[in-house]
Recover the amino acids of this structure.
């Protein structure tokens, strides 16, 4: 069950904006604040990236401008979210300590000053500097009632900064190995270094798993990824602790990028936070997901984003702490960083904002107040254009404010789901390290299950391997080569139907094949053994039979030996592809979407979960008694009281006809 | 108006050839010279790349072979063009001063010895060495009547050598910044370095805009490109000055590559030259332009080159100094450097030669006399094969000689155009630095307008932003984000119809958004404001309405607010896409070719410029009373006295039937 | 004529396996050995990559485990093939002498420890270390009757290790140049360094041909490739000598990768070996060959490999020493290193094994006994799964054992071919260095002739340029820019029909154009001269006429002048494309497969060689009186006594109906 919302100081849903007063003449600030309030915004994020203005030279601080900016905003009753500026160490600091800079894993080249995120998570020098600036800021502003909370750093790991090949990283990795394995023989055994004479004689001769003649040991790579994730946590935890030491009645959050792009254990990263925030840019993200491999979908959703892709990250956000979250940066128009950057279709900014709320967001903050007139993001839309005129998003936000006013009478607990999708960053690590087949990526596998569920109109919780699963009807572990005892205990505590996808249980934590082969720890649950794995070219599919219907198997296909269990689907030649033992199923192959919808629908119906296959472009989501329906399509869609609209629905906003890129909201008990 | 031709010492059109006597036994030279003369060639370029033979070791010069080569050529009344050998510093010089070598911008790796162009434009050591060898040569040959002129270096900036990431470049850039901005605060303000804490405390901490974690500040990149362009000018000007100090009655030229590939202000680069030369390789260039994105066109024009692409560069050459120019290297057969290297269709060598003349070339010099038997260019055709037999081009050149004999009675002033296409290298820099949409490149935008005009059978001048525009009927500024006051003054001095393409006026010189937004300085001319820009996937187009016809909008689409002006074309939903105020138009989107032809045709007709839509493969060009018509197609085309052939045309060469890959020439008053 | 088979100590065909006892608990070894014997295996390769276990620290040897492993295997009458572990220098050695590591040619970056093949062939330090460990092993085991022979290193040059840009390589190259050219002027002349002032003043200023601004001199690149090949030979010869010094009654072999991937003169590499071995992975290799450019074929043969591609390498193996060979590693299931890794179709492991035998293999050894549970190759199938269960291949190997029992009564001399395909590594070097046209690669050209011949059901010997050609009916030199006098003498000694492909004779050994132009030394044989070469886009073909039929010319097209010779095929406009003078033909262009089959069929019929066009998926091969027929297709094929089945055939295995992925074997006199 999802916990209560965390409004972050507000008593109800609110909107906010990201603001960089230091980019604009001080005489503009008063009008900025007045207009923010007039638009209906309630909070303003400031201070991000401002280190060179806060501390222009070492130990020479300038807080005057920030004090005045806070005062100006507070005068309009706007709450301030203050950022730590650690994503942008200033030039004087880099010149003083160039060893702060990270190294590019592929080339080993230093990644230099001149943009952002030019620091190494393993640099103790930098960690101390980051803690110092956080402490200075928290000491000054940690007890200031105008500040409701803090954002740490910015988009941790963005620009592929999770991994580094620096001297600092190399030394830290040796220490980490020593700490994890204790003695070098154990490390050699754990990694299987006897293979190819890769054995080390001492921890101080261990290298980073980069730059070898051909691929390095996957166990070595896995250890590096674990190490890198822990370095990021250590850095971030230190910053959070520095804040916590001084703040009172203020919360701490961080604005995440898509979780897979952090390369990090995001559940752990979220641990010290009061709640999670997400930076939501549906169009560019959709282009990255679909642009190359699925150009037809990319064209279809060019101005809306894929109907499930944003929601997938929203549900991940909710799941990270099992509570309400914020959108810290919401796309308000064309951006500047995708291969092509179209305009959102009219209505989409409002739709995305309400969709975030429907999935559990408590506050949505737009990025950015005013389009920058200089530097890297000039082509990124804001709510105001550089000349202060209102951008296209302005009126859509006014619409949202009106909707929020309607909703303020409603109780909006967090969404409740009967289906859990269990994830773990290790799944991504395994598929990155040992892909085995072109196109096989853990996050795409998980997303395919997610979108099949959403087409069936069910809510989905995306949870960690250590989550309580007792209240779900269906638990799906789409991709998890390393299955933990914790997960299996939670499965035992639950009576949910359990569906495991291909490769689940196929690896030990040290990236070996389990003694009993795949699915390893899952074997007693299923009485199945994986004999071998084949991967298919992305342009090949093969027939696959389930319930007398033919679907398609693709990309990843395991050959199984089945003992005492039921075969529920077959490859050609009647070879088992889906096995069921009691409430537990194992799917041995990746498939087309149609099969997933059919299978999941059958499993949900069996558990008497109400499903309803929605059109391709329509989705709904419910908080308490309030349901939101969204139409991503270019044509209107009429909800149907016999299927996707409850008989007792009372419309709060809109009606049964969903306009193109429109939404309706109703109450039903 | 285009100035007179500069024949370079000849009283009429002439042909020449590039020759490397040092590659061949001295006993062959006499026969070479005799055959050149017999073929009808008048001048011979020599000495290019010959530094290791002119100065085998420091200060040990060997001019004997060069003296004998000059004498041998002169004995056959062949005029010599002498080259400075600065494109190939010899090994002893690199070993002595390895800091001459440039650095690769992406990797920072030294670009070493072993081919050509291995020098850094910012190296003061090398500039002095280049000046030294130029002076030595000019002192010796600067008053020699057998030498008509000089070519500096070779194909400046070829092989992506305009940009370098060397220590020399880094230091020179710091000095350049100090000189341009005076104090560091002004630089920080100009670049907007407050964004992402990119502020510098001193000029000596400024870095080159390479190797950062993500994209560097576009203003920083813009400054670097300006700097790099100026370094190239400084190097080249120094070489020209060294020559000028000693030469008498000799001219100086340089053989340009396609202007966009120089990354440099070519108008400025041409300033110290007496005239411009161009190295014309239609097939490889066309393959580079079309091969990947437009394979159908690439196949169609595989053996001819695109009918407008060579001409586009010819017209640029004419425009650089507003006078006649030379083709210093003309492709005579298959080359060696494109992904595939087909044979020119029979007739094309003659066609290209006469096309160059039609567009204003006074001399066409073929590359090369004799196909090299060794080293990098063995697969590059010459007029002779390595064994002295005649290549396919030989007889086509004989044909050209006959045509030139016919033309020698005609007056051939430079072409006169009623249409100007205004260009500036800054447009290319902006689109390279901030592309914003895949496929959007300034030179492709400009070329699209050019080819639409040429299909309408009008001559085009390609001029700089500081050109006199008073004598044109139509002035097109296809792509110019940074519009200068100079250009607007010239527009005011002219009564031409003015057409500005998308993104014009969108940036200040320091790469910021103008205070009044795009189109910045153009706003009073048009009463229009750009609200936002979107870029579309290259595989998407959207309908676009003009004069009740539907065309296609593509790639780059601006949303406009129009005040007191007429909307002449519309996107979907009647949103303005083309705006007109008086004689001035602003086109807010890239479009298909059909629309450009329609619009430009309408504008030309309005100004009573005679147009005639030519077939896809036929083009004409006029010098004085002489018109040349060319057929790039594989089938004959009959000119029509009602449209593309004047009623009073008297044929000098050929007749109204243009053979495949053929040409006709007529006189009309 | 191919020499006798070399069974390597066996009196008949045998099977073996690759085994890594050090990867498994010692208590498993006895059962492993018993199962190997029970399966019918006769020999076991061990010790590969085991340096860190044989010499855990310098001079501290541990042979106990190896002794026990050998004893365990010998107890089951299994013969041991012992490997030198030089492909994996251990970490202590790299830490001691980091200069052993090779450098990446493109970037110059060190290629570090962490996988395998991390040594530079030019490192004298490493050569001494490799010789040392070989000597130590040979001293200990060189007179042990349980060991039948040795495998040197592993897959020399795999992972693109033939070329290196290290300090060691740079210094060795200078010495090599001095040794080859004697004085620097001769080198400059040989390379044509006058071109672009590339002249060197001394050998110690010569650089490796990498990292220049643009392409380096092809003669320089050619010299580097010769040097690199000789460095590999020197390294390998030294290892072989070290073994030979101590061994008695043991042979030496090496397991080759596809010959083109060695970048080395494989005939010379094979010289010190008793016989050649090959590592045969049909699926991944086929994917690499076809995956990108011919996706339809890649899909069709996804689970079988292309019917001719494995055989092409088998016939190369037989040709390297003109005698029987081994398959040292035979793919037994899905592998782990191709972009996608499908399962072999049922039957293919047996089919591949017998196909290898049909082409001359005497022993086939499967890779590997037991699938690794750790490190880089966990996804690579073995005969046993990690948990000791039998993989899919097991029963196919049992089938093979039964077949070998049937065959043991038969005499199986090496295959006899009437057609020779002459190859030389220099052809590959030329096409790599000066490709001139996208898609033109020497090995693809040669393979195209090979597969045309195989469709015509003839056996092919693949021989070196110095082979005796006297007993062939047809000799094909598909691609050989550098033709040697030796080859021409062999051609003279033979009365075979001689067919030379495009570019033959086009270069001198120092990569210059021959004085008489292409085809250089071949001119007197053909009375033809190549005027020019054009290359076509891969998406273009052009009609081409032979015997009144129209075929397609593609990729590479030479223009010819023909003196006293017959033109046998024509490009468009009746330009000569195939010339014949007596028994010698010159084909001036690459073509479609249909033409090659037609031409080769005509030439073979003329020599009364029996041909028969086989279906796309069926092939046969004959050893003595025993013929093997294979069906790569998914449908059965019935052999026909009128064409592809001799009238007197007596079936030993199977019958006239070739099952899908099946085989039959018959005896006929």
């Amino acid at each position: 069950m999802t916990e209560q919302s965390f409004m972050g100081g507000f008593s109800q849903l609110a909107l906010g904006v990201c603001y960089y007063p230091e980019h604009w003449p001080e005489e503009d600030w008063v009008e900025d604040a007045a207009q923010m309030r007039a638009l209906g915004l309630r909070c303003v994020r400031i201070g991000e990236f401002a280190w060179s203005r806060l501390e222009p030279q070492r130990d020479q601080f300038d807080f005057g401008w920030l004090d005045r900016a806070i005062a100006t905003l507070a005068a309009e009753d706007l709450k301030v979210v203050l950022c730590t500026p650690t994503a942008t160490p200033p030039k004087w600091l880099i010149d003083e300590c160039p060893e702060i800079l990270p190294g590019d894993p592929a080339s080993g080249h230093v990644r230099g000053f001149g943009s952002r995120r030019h620091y190494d998570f393993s640099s103790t020098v930098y960690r101390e500097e980051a803690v110092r600036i956080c402490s200075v800021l928290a000491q000054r502003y940690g007890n200031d009632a105008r500040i409701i909370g803090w954002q740490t750093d910015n988009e941790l790991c963005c620009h592929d900064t999770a991994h580094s090949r620096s001297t600092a990283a190399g030394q830290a990795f040796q220490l980490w190995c020593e700490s994890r394995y204790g003695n070098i023989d154990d490390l050699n055994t754990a990694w299987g270094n006897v293979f190819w004479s890769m054995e080390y004689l001492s921890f101080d001769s261990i290298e980073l798993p980069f730059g070898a003649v051909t691929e390095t040991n996957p166990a070595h790579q896995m250890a590096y990824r674990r190490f890198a994730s822990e370095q990021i946590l250590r850095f971030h935890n230190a910053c959070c602790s520095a804040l916590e030491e001084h703040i009172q009645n203020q919360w701490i959050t961080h604005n995440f990028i898509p979780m897979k792009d952090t390369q990090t254990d995001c559940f752990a990263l979220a641990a010290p936070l009061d709640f999670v925030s997400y930076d939501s840019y549906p169009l560019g993200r959709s282009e990255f997901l679909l642009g190359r491999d699925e150009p037809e979908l990319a064209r279809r959703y060019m101005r809306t984003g894929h109907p499930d892709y944003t929601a997938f990250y929203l549900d991940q956000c909710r799941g990270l702490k099992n509570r309400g979250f914020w959108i810290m940066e919401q796309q308000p128009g064309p951006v500047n960083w995708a291969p092509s950057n179209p305009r959102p279709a009219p209505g989409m900014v409002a739709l995305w904002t309400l969709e975030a709320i429907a999935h559990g967001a408590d506050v949505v903050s737009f990025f950015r107040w005013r389009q920058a007139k200089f530097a890297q993001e000039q082509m990124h839309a804001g709510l105001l254009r550089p000349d202060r005129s209102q951008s296209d998003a302005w009126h859509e936000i006014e619409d949202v404010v009106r909707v929020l006013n309607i909703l303020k009478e409603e109780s909006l607990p967090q969404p409740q789901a009967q289906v859990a999708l269990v994830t773990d960053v290790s799944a991504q690590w395994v598929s990155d390290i040992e892909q085995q087949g072109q196109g096989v990526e853990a996050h795409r596998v998980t997303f395919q299950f997610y979108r099949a569920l959403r087409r069936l109109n069910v809510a989905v919780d995306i949870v960690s391997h250590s989550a309580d699963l007792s209240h779900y009807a269906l638990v799906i572990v789409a991709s998890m080569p390393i299955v933990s005892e914790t997960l299996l205990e939670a499965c035992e505590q639950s009576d949910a139907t359990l569906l495991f996808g291909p490769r689940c249980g196929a690896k030990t934590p040290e990236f070996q094949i389990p003694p009993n082969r795949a699915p390893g720890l899952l074997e007693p649950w299923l009485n199945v053994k994986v004999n071998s794995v084949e991967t298919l070219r992305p342009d090949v599919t093969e027939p696959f039979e389930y319930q007398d219907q033919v679907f398609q198997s693709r990309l990843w296909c395991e050959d199984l030996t089945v003992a005492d269990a039921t075969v529920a689907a077959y490859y050609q030649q009647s070879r088992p592809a889906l096995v069921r033992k009691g409430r537990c199923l194992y799917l041995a192959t990746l498939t087309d979407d149609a099969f997933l919808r059919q299978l999941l629908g059958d499993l949900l119906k069996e558990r008497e979960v109400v499903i309803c296959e929605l059109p391709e472009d329509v989705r709904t989501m419910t908080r308490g008694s309030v349901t939101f329906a969204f139409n991503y399509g270019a044509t209107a869609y009429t909800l149907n009281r016999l299927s996707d609209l409850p008989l007792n629905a009372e419309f709060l906003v809109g009606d049964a006809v969903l306009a193109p890129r429109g939404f309706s909201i109703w109450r039903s008990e």
Observations:
- The two ends of chain A are 19 Å apart (CA to CA).
- Chain A touches chain C through 51 residues (CB under 8 Å).
- Chain A has three domains: 16-177+211-407, 419-606, 618-667.
